[in-house]
Amino acid sequence: MNCILREILSPGRLTEVVDIGANPVDGEPPYRPMMQAELVQVTGFEPQQSALEELLAKKSPAERYLPYAVGDGQCHTLKICAGSGMTSLLEPDVRSLDLFEVLKPYGQVIDRVPIDTKRLDEIDEIELLDLLKIDIQGGELAVFQHGKNKLSQAVVIQVEVSFVTLYENQPGMGEIDIELRNQGFIPHCFAAVKHWPIAPCVVNGEPRRALNQLLEADLVYVRDFSRPENLTDEQLKHLALIVHHCYRSFDLALRCVMLLEQRGAVAAGSQVRYLGSLGRK
After folding, report:
1. pLDDT of 52 above 60
2. Cis ω on the peptide bond leading into residue 67 (within 30° of 0)?
3. Where is the Methyltransferase FkbM domain (predicted)?
4. pLDDT > 90? residue 262
């Protein structure tokens, strides 16, 4: 599949994606367009056996999946929930689940499995990291705190954040935001926002139809591009490719191309060429 932006940027390698909590319960991952364009290599982590088997059965040559639970490096108990997407190292919070009647049965713990976690910084299989997608039901902050060296390479992080926490002692959006800002990232966009109806209200007989209550969101952070001196040429190239293909953030991609052109890292006229390619979309 042809990619004009890749021709313009000529990166030195494929974009490296790490997907922590790769369970395909939420459908296609945001980096699917890059996979279709053969621009990425994916390393995914999924400790739930059934979900791992599904990933392995469908994977392409550009994907590999490992059974590790990524966290703080300690031994924990994995709470297997009736809803696969709610399985977590944390205990479901009964009081929070009582607020959302439809979610409550999915949060029922049906098994408890002792499991060793691995720190992101200690996973040898990850040599390079450009895009991190992470959704592990409340365990995200521990991954960030124990993965600072690996994350220093990253230019984009898509993380599920919670406005109403569904697990005991789960970090909320504010704690995630502070940690990622301290590591040099800023919020860029919402990839998805979940509203949920507060029990016992049912709107027009539709138990999943929400009014206003925010529950969760997939929030995309990017390396702070207002400080371009902190990004290498290669980081700018992968940032441009990711935001272009995954989030259609053509303005940020153009900014990266501009910076690279100013540095002489891409050919003169690259901005004009990129803008011209957008007109054909």
Report:
1. yes
2. no
3. 19-186
4. yes
State the Cα–Cα distance between residues 119 and 41, nearest whole angstrom: 21
Contact 178, 144 (CB under 8 A): no
Query: Which residue is associated with the tokens 């994907």?
Result: 63
End-to-end CA distance of the chain: 14
pLDDT band of residue 280 (cuts 50, 70, 90) is low
Measured CA to CA, the distance from residue 135 to residue 146 in angstroms comes to 16
Say how far apart CA 120 and CA 148 lie, in whole Å.
Answer: 8
Beta strands in 23-165 (DSSP E): 40-45, 63-66, 69-71, 75-81, 109-119, 131-134, 156-162
Please report the pLDDT score of residue 1 as a whole number. 41
Domains (ranges, CATH) in the chain? 4-278 (3.40.50.150)
Secondary structure of residue 234 in the 3-state scheme = helix
The answer to whether 214 and 164 are in contact (CB under 8 A) is yes
Q: In what order do the strands lie in the sheet with 63-66?
A: 63-66, 40-45, 15-20, 131-134, 156-162, 214-223, 185-195
Map tokens 């980096």 to a residue.
31
- H-run or E-run covering 141: helix 140-145
Angle of helix 233-247 versus helix 250-263 axis, rounded to 10: 160
